């Protein structure tokens, strides 16, 4: 895997995690533990 491909994959994963975290933070039913786990990822 080339460096550019690896960086692209990491950026995509980061965007997906940020979207999941934002979604969890916008729902009051989300537990603090789940939000903390997403932040650690």
Characterize this entry briefly.
The chain has one domain (3-40).
List the helices and strands and how they pair.
Blueprint: H1 3-26, H2 32-40
Averaging pLDDT over every residue, what do you get?
A: 88
What is the total domain count?
Answer: 1
- Helix/strand order, N-terminal first: HH
How many beta-strand elements? 0
**CA-atom Rg in angstroms:** 13 Å
Q: Could you estimate the helical fraction of the residues in percent?
A: over 70%
* Number of alpha- plus pi-helical segments: 2
Low-confidence stretches: none
Beta-strand portion reads: under 5%
Largest sheet: none
Overall form: elongated
End-to-end separation in angstroms reads 22 Å
- By secondary-structure content and strand pairing, the structural class works out as mainly alpha
Account of the protein in words:
80% of the residues lie in helices and 0% in strands. The protein is mainly alpha-helical. It has one domain. The longest helix has 24 residues, at 3-26.
Key descriptive features of the protein:
mainly alpha, 2 helices, about 0% strand, about 40 residues
């Amino acid at each position: 895997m080339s460096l550019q491909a690896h960086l692209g994959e990491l950026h995509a994963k980061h965007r997906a995690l940020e979207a999941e975290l934002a979604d969890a933070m916008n729902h009051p039913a989300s537990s603090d533990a789940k939000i903390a786990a997403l932040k650690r990822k």
